[in-house]
Amino acid sequence: MRFYQSEKGLVPEPLASNTSQLQPISKIKDFSSPPINHSFSYCAELQSYLQGKQLLLDDLHFSLQTIHTHYENGYILYRKGITRTTNGHKCERCGNEAPHLFASFHCERCHQPACTYCRKCIMMGRVSECTPLISWTGPFDERHIPPSPLNWDGTLSSGQRAASDAVIDAIQRNDELLVWAVCGAGKTEVLFHGIETALAENKRVCIATPRTDVVIELGPRIQRAFPQVDVVTLYGGSEDRTKTASLTLSTTHQLLRYYRAFDVIIIDEVDAFPYSAEPMLEYAVNQAKKEVSTTIYLTATPNLRWQKEVKKGKRKAITIPARYHRNPLPVPSFKWCGNWRKLLQKNRLPANVLSWIHRHLLQEKQAFLFVPHIESLEKIVELLQKEDCRIEGVHSKDSSRKEKIQAFRDKRTLILVTTTILERGVTVPNVNVAILGADDGIFTESALVQISGRVGRSSKYPTGEILFYHYGKTNAMLQAKKHILKMNHDAVKRGLIGQKEEKSVK
Ligand SMILES: [Zn+2]
Ligand SMILES: [Zn+2]
After folding, report:
1. Distance from residue 235's CA to the centre of ligand 1 (Å)
2. Fewer CB within 10 Å, N or C, the chain?
3. Which string of b and e fits 345-371 if b means at least 16 CB within 10 Å?
4. What pTM value is reported for the model?
5. Cis peptide leading into 274, omega within 30 of 0?
6. What structural domains does the chain harbor?
7. How many whole angstroms from 280 Cα to the centroid of ligand 2?
8. Ligand nearest to the CA of 129
9. How far does the centroid of ligand 1 lie from the alpha carbon of residue 106, in Å?
10. How far apart are the CA of 130 and the centre of ligand 1, in A?
């Protein structure tokens, strides 16, 4: 849309009386927004729809007149969708500055022969030079929060309790905090009291994670813990996408529609693909939180840079080095298995891997076998299924992924061969784990730590076997083992493993 710049601010083309100086919003140099008029009676429906968001005109089912009146009274902000940089353009919605991710088209809306738009976030509607991003600058609606919103009678381990206190403290001080918790530490419970504190202060909380399946799994758990609080879950295709709530669970992608929305943002699995590999998602998180806010990062495997920052005291962090059931993390054993790639080409598997599989079949003991790639997976599964039908394979492009994981949970499948797709998130009690080809580049330190973390998760079966079959140890393998040993060492030092602690009385 084109705008006319008057003394009082911007006027959109359909409402402008002066049509001589109309320009696409991105071409208008500087413009300020009208101050807020406290006596203006705003539209509550618009408030509820737009608060905390950055939307396009096309996303709003309100008339332009309604929207613009709110702008004139300081309740709505217009921002440029695309801005100019020294090198080219920047998309203000997704942060994209890569020249090859911009294109231009003959635009009917602004009558320019070449209106530049962002290709990167186009799946959420086109942002071009004539697209204003529209946000709410008026007050947010009041949420009704019951006096004690948390309904959870579980007990925190002392490791969890220390982390829970640190989370509460960070929320009260609008600070940043990394919670570095081993796989199986029970990190969701660590958030409960912090969320309760935030809600009591009428703060809006968002738990964001890169992975859709985590949002779907977490939704019911959070709602059960906070039964009287409005909770929305946002992911591609979810029904809640237009709602706002006191407690939001979202994929990091969906946060692209949010702007200055949350007082507390908790990022789960901060190191997980695609968050770590995709700067857009970090940009989205930064846009979605309020200027004064708390950011809590959760992970079992912070990247090397963060680990160093923690060591040097440059990043605030609390570690939970022990699992909630107070048993040490299973430590991987390295097993040389010869040139597994070459053997696979000849349709064979290393002898020691085969005997590991046979042992599990014989004892009817469930196990995951991680392999590096889909191609190797297909070959291995084909070879193994000739031996026993209780073996199945699963990978990211597998359309029956859910059913196969369910069959494994139901113990109909004994051995599940998988790629790194199952390195995190999936918890099955009483399994052993082996990696065939642990020396492959895809198995980074964090992947190896996460995979090792699949073993011994439940308090009923707190131990198990984790084997790295390899053709030459890699740095990542050594680092992963060191990482796990260090966590166990710290846990012993802090008295977090060993005898059961007394139940705390609340
Ligand atoms: Zn245009
Ligand atoms: Zn964009």
Report:
1. 29
2. C
3. eeeebbeebeebbeebbeeeebbbbbb
4. 0.86
5. yes
6. 2-136 (no CATH), 158-320 (3.40.50.300), 333-481 (3.40.50.300)
7. 9
8. 1
9. 8
10. 4
The ligand placed nearest to the CA atom of residue 112 is 1
| pLDDT(501) > 60 | no
pLDDT of residue 396: 83
CA of 269 to the centre of ligand 2 (A): 24
Q: 309-332: b or e for each residue (b if 16 or more CB lie within 10 Å)? A: bbeeeebebbbbbbbbbbbbbbeb
Distances (CA, A) of 150 to 29, 171, 318, 484: 49, 16, 23, 33
| 47-93 tens-digit pLDDT | 999 999 999 999 999 999 999 999 999 999 999 999 999 989 999 99
d(CA 345, CA 418): 19
Give the per-residue pLDDT at 271: 77
Residue 222 and residue 231: Cα distance in Å, rounded?
8
pLDDT digits over 72-85, tens only? Answer: 999 999 999 999 99
- pLDDT for 146 equals 85
Ligand showing the shortest atom-to-Cα distance for residue 128: 1
Alpha carbon of 197 to ligand 2 centroid (Å): 35
Cα 94 to averaged position of ligand 2 atoms, centre (Å): 4
Taking the centre of ligand 1 as the mean of its atom positions, its distance from the CA of residue 137, in whole angstroms, is 25
Q: What is the pLDDT of residues 292-335, one digit of tens each?
A: 999 999 999 998 888 999 999 999 999 999 999 999 999 999 99
Q: Which ligand is nearest to the CA of 104?
A: 1
Could you tell me the distance, in angstroms and rounded to a whole number, from the CA of residue 282 to the centre of ligand 1?
28
Q: Which of 65, 99, 68 is nearest to 82 (CA)?
A: 99
The answer to whether 350 and 340 are in contact (CB under 8 A) is yes
Backbone angles phi, psi at 23, to 5 degrees: -140, 155
Instruction: Write the CA distances from 453 to 57, 72, 324, 393, 446, integer angstroms.
Output: 46, 55, 13, 20, 10
Ligand nearest to the CA of 280: 2
The pLDDT score that the predictor gives to residue 497 is 86
The amino acid at 137: T
C-alpha of residue 115 to centroid of ligand 1, in Å: 5
Distance 420 CA to ligand 1 centre (A): 43
Nearest-ligand number for the alpha carbon of 126: 2
pLDDT bracket for residue 274 (50, 70, 90): low
